[in-house]
Amino acid sequence: METHNRELDELYSGTIPDIVEGGKVISIKPDSVVVDIGYKSEGFISIEEFAEKDRGGLCEGAEIEVYVSRIDADGLVILSPEKARKIRTLQRLEEAQEDGTPVEGTVVERIKGGYNVDISGIRAFMPGSQADLKPLKDPDSLNGQEIEVRVLKFNSKLTNVIVSRRVILEEERLKLREKTLANLKPESVLSGVVKNITDYGVFVDLGGIDGLLHISDISWGRIRHPSDVFNVGQEVEVMVVNFAPETEKVTLGYKQKRSDPWLNIEEKYPVGSVVSGKVVSLTDYGAFVEIEDGVEGLVHVSELDWSPRPKHPSNYMEVGDFVDAQILKVDPKERRVSLGIKQLKPKPWKLVAERYEVGRRINGRVRSLTEFGAFIGLPEGVDALLHISDMSWTKHVRHPSEILRKGQMIEAVILSLEPEKERMALGLKQLVTDPWEEKIPADFQLGDEVKCKVLRHTEFGIFVELEGEVEGLIYSSEIDTGGKKPDEIYKDGDEIVVRIIKVEVEGRKIGLSLKTLKHETNE
Question: How many CA atoms, within 13 angstroms, populate the side-chain half-sphere of residue 450?
Answer without folding.
Answer: 26
